[in-house]
Amino acid sequence: MWIILISFSHVNRISLIWVLIALASMYNLFIHEMDVKTAFLNGGIEKEIYMLQPEGCIVPGQKIKVCKLLKSLYGLKQALKQWYEKFNRVVLSDGFF
Predict the structure, then answer these.
(1) Are 31 and 41 contained in the same domain?
(2) Same domain for 27 and 17?
(3) Residue range 4-17: average pLDDT?
(4) Nearest Cα to 82, choosing from 70, 92, 93, 95?
(5) Residue 61 and residue 91 in one domain
């Protein structure tokens, strides 16, 4: 049997990690930890969001144009929420609760 920790914070409380290790030890569970660096890029966007053209990607003669985002970008305030909602929807549809 596996215990899966899903964490959205860059910094976790060490007490939480100790509790999880203790529970895994008590119930003879396996612990697997992974870091997905591009997870936030998989979240959709509910509202229209525009951004300036990134440096180095500015089209000559079209400097004043902006980019409309179709997917979430790392660093957007909405990125974590959007990714969590998509992740939650997929996990629940697969029968996990």
Answers:
(1) no
(2) yes
(3) 65
(4) 70
(5) yes
Coil, helix or strand at residue 48: coil
Domain that holds residue 77: 37-97
Global pTM value: 0.48
**Where does 27-93 have alpha helices with state H?**
79-93
pLDDT one-digit tens code per residue, 24-73 = 889 988 887 766 667 666 677 888 888 888 888 888 888 888 988 888 77
Residue 85 has pLDDT above 60, yes or no: yes
53: which DSSP letter?
Answer: P
Query: How many domains does one find in the chain?
Result: 2
Both 49 and 82 in a single domain? yes
Residue 35: CA count within 13 A, CB half-sphere: 4
> At residue 14, what are phi and psi to the nearest 5 degrees?
-65, -30
